[in-house]
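Table 4 source record.
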Amino acid sequence: MLTPTDTVPLSGPLDAADLRRAALPLTVAVDEAARARVERGRRLFHALRHGPGGADRRIYGADTGFGALVGYAGRTDDADQCDNTLAHLGAGQGPDLAPQIVRAALLLRTRSLAQGLSGVSAEVVDRLAAMFATTFAPAVPRYGSVGASGDLIPLAYATQALRGRGHAYLDGDRMPAGEALTAAGLRPLALDGRDALALVNGTSVTTAATALALDAVRAAHRSLTALSCLLTDLLGCDTGFLDADLLRVYGHPGAVDVGGRMRHTLAGGTPSGTRPLQEPYSIRCAPQLLGAAEDALRHVDGVVAADLGGVSDNPLFFPAPGTGAGTDGVGEGKVVHGGNFFGQPAAFAADLLASVTAQLGNLAERQLDLLVDPARNGGLPPMLATEPGAQHGLQGVQLASTAFVAEIRRAATPAGMQSLPTNLHNQDVVPFGTQAALRAHDSAELLGLLCGSLALGLRQAAHVGARRPTAPRCRELLDALTEAIPPVDPDRPLDSDVRVAARLLVRYARP
């Protein structure tokens, strides 16, 4: 089994790099401040439930039914109340989510619980933290969440696996969860009703999938910016479309910034003087398109940052003002019932991310189409084939790219506008953020493959007669592609080459 290589603290907010690291074993550090917060929150929960006035105070999930059945009493035994929380949520269907998403979601859940506002036991946080030192990942079905009371059904499957029920992955192998826990050296979680509800009543799956999708789209955006420069240089295009004054008066900060990055990448380059006065929009309007995407991604950045640093449980337990995390007392304190689990911000953000992904994918596919077309590529052979007819070059890759774009477009229909009432109209409006986030994550993967396809085309263009890039940074990118991928001569299956190029671009693009 792999051993942990990174450490993630629970006191500060998480970021996309933390979520990426969660795919492999890592050390999750429960520091003294986090432990004090959790223990204080647990004491407050017990004081509000069992202390003065507790008999007349209702705390959702502790001794009530759930959802539309909140008006009915729950089970009196704490362990039974845990089962009462989780059993009815075992209604998910479909293929398992990627273990990377599940582990990222549980890292977010652990961080949220460690803020001390959820009333959970310190044992829960400790045991969740211990899980990350292994490769254990609950098996969670994709379909079943409306993203309204948080990601109830997927998080219930994750929680049940941590209890040794259902299935889980260990070292990539799917097996009964109890066997996976034993093999990983973990003990099944023992929970009461408060612990169980806190584990399922948050937006962690939605947030994790949105954050990972954003991270992938950001990498693709940087890759496509660089590839647009390499295309410009290989074809010998005039770079007037990147003029700083031109983009300044356009008025959009994203376009100004993208144009600046493109001028930096193309610095030292020399146009060929043989291209038309005005390039097709897939080149000439690249800074405007990529700039608009940058502006949109900055909005998504803000939403994801807020969700990564927020607490989305219901109910939440707030100590009295002035009650420090390290004190024995909890003051008066209060329990507040509300709707922080309503994942509408992430739903809107993920839908916007899907729209950005569709247009970026369209740009990559159109640039590849230009590159394989001898009427527009400066006289390079059709499909960049070394011997057209006897060889077919990038023809299959272009066909696949068209299919990728169609799939991304199909998935870009906004999920956040699909609200349907459910749960006896207790959940009478729902955000469907989980669907939006997971589809954005799927589309981000396809966008990476589209960038890999374009990169492969640029590498092949250099092989069949395109000029050597004149800008040093463009030469550096082409040389990296040339070293990693042999020319298509003769024809061969190119699926693995596209993936190699996509992975290379991610390494190239991440700061």
